[in-house]
Specification:
Radius of gyration: 25 Å
Shape: extended
Largest sheet: none
Distance between the termini: 72 Å
Number of strands: 0
Strand content: under 5%
Helix content: 40-55%
Structural class: mainly alpha
């Protein structure tokens, strides 16, 4: 009988199979890695702003509370961006001629808002309220990272569905006393889970119901 395949054919087939599986596996890993990259999650990206506002200077060095500028964070769904009048509370007295603050002065003179580029944003199909999370004891740092150390603001956490679900499945370790909500340097105690569970019970958090679809999609 005539030999159809050469002696090395088996070796070539095995190499092709191994190569194909390696390529498929590598493609999956690359796709997952790309999906979690800063490009896709928009983390660690500092978008251009009309004024190079520094949270590190204002919140970190000067110790200005988050709620001074984001005044609606405890009472509404959005934290809100500060109106120009809030900026001019200080800057009508200090750094009055600084060139970088020209857009702020022009905004006040023209009675038009400063066109800030929003950094922390969610898709339109996601239902989220800041006031609910603040009232239950979720700290600003839990979602926004150590913003008091950011010279230019960027998104520290990827606001993926998994990020929210992980906290909603087990909220207790992420809760803190309400008077520490805006404190960036707050460290959880050794019995963080026990205290978090006590806060959850006191605030009426319904364990086991926070992962229902309607909680975030309405």
């Amino acid at each position: 009988m005539v030999q159809i395949f050469s002696p090395v054919a088996d070796t070539w087939i095995r190499l092709f199979l191994i190569g194909g599986l390696s390529l498929a596996g590598g493609s999956i890993v690359a796709a997952v890695g790309f999906a979690h990259s800063s490009y896709m999650t928009e983390t660690d990206i500092r978008p251009h702003q009309p004024v190079p506002f520094s949270h590190r200077h204002h919140a970190g060095e000067l110790g200005i509370d988050c709620r001074y500028c984001h005044s609606n964070v405890e009472a509404g769904p959005q934290a809100g961006l500060p109106p120009t009048e809030t900026c001019m509370t200080c800057h009508s007295q200090i750094w009055t001629n600084a060139s970088m603050l020209e857009p702020v002065r022009k905004s006040l003179a023209d009675n038009t808002p400063i066109p800030w580029t929003r950094v922390a944003k969610l898709p339109d199909y996601v239902f989220f309220r800041h006031d609910i999370h603040i009232a239950k004891g979720v700290g600003c740092e839990s979602c926004h990272g150590l913003i008091d150390q950011m010279a230019l603001t960027y998104r520290a956490k990827a606001f993926t569905m998994q990020f929210c679900i992980d906290c909603h499945r087990d909220p207790a370790p992420h809760l803190r006393p309400r008077d520490h909500v805006t404190e960036m340097a707050w460290a959880p105690p050794a019995n963080a889970r026990k205290e978090g569970e006590a806060i959850a019970v006191h605030e009426g958090i319904r364990f086991g119901e926070l992962t229902h679809c309607y909680v975030c999609h309405r």
